[in-house]
Specification:
The chain is of the alpha/beta class and 221 residues long. Helix content is 54%, strand content 12%. The chain has helices at residues 23-36, 51-62, 69-93, 104-114, 119-130, 145-155, 167-183, 197-214, and strands spanning 12-17, 41-45, 97-101, 137-142, 188-192. Bound molecules: thymidine-5'-phosphate.
Length: 221
């Protein structure tokens, strides 16, 4: 890590959005950008991010046995608990910035919106696993459902248990994400993911400018 910034506390940034919204590309670009600012970045993902979490991810996304909605929700939070305790918090304490491809807003969107589970049940688990711990900033990459599906189809990868859900499910996921953006105020920034890659990257940089400035990492340009 850059000596000048060694004693600073890390920041926790999450990227959210539908499958096919360009999260992976944007996380890589953001990580490179932060590194050029002398920031030590750890990129991770959910479900996953630890050995146990990655094993649970495999089960959640590819189990041959049926998994009911409640089990899916509990597995998400089991993976998250391990991730928060063993990776995210220790790294933040060490001054690293953690960029996560998805976090709890995804649970509100997919299990809450998509699977129609009770928001209050998700909140109970959120409280159990995280207490007051939340991302410092969340970037929501928003795009019309049909466009996300087209991008996924072009990629031609095998479809998992969640990606195989129908259009109505995906529409509910999008709506639940937008609702999170409305409810969580400035923490969740909505970025138009239909724009070209470099424009989306600029918009994301713009959203984290204040975070960089407040920590003395320059003007974020
Ligand atoms: P990914 O393909 O973006 O890595 O995400 C894996 C899938 O897991 C994606 O379809 C969204 C889903 N998911 C949930 O349903 N709930 C969650 O809490 C998280 C983190 C992901």
């Amino acid at each position: 890590m850059n000596r000048k910034h060694r004693n600073k506390t890390g920041r926790f940034i999450t990227l959210e959005g539908a499958d096919g919204s360009g999260k992976s590309t944007q996380i890589a670009l953001l990580s490179d950008f932060l590194a050029t600012r002398g920031i030590d970045v750890h990129v991770t993902r959910e479900p996953g991010g630890t050995r146990l979490g990655e094993a649970l991810r495999e089960i959640i996304l590819h189990s041959a046995d049926p998994i009911d909605d409640k089990v899916e929700l509990l597995l998400m939070f089991a993976a998250r608990s391990q991730h928060v305790t063993n990776v995210i918090k220790p790294r933040l304490s060490n001054g690293q910035w953690v960029l996560s491809d998805r976090f709890t807003d995804a649970t509100f969107a997919y299990q809450g919106g998509g699977r129609r589970m009770e928001v209050k049940d998700i909140e109970v688990l959120q409280n159990l696993v995280q207490g007051d711990f939340r991302p410092d900033k969340t970037i929501l990459l928003d795009l019309p459902v049909e466009q996300g599906i087209r991008r996924l189809t072009h990629r031609g990868e095998a479809v998992d248990r969640i990606e195989e859900q129908d259009l109505a499910f995906k529409q509910r996921v999008r709506e639940a994400y937008v609702e999170r953006h409305r409810q969580c105020g400035s923490r969740i920034a909505l970025v138009d993911a239909t724009a070209p890659i470099h424009e989306v990257h600029e918009a994301i940089k713009n959203e984290i400018k204040d975070l960089l400035n407040s920590l003395g990492y320059g003007n974020g340009d």
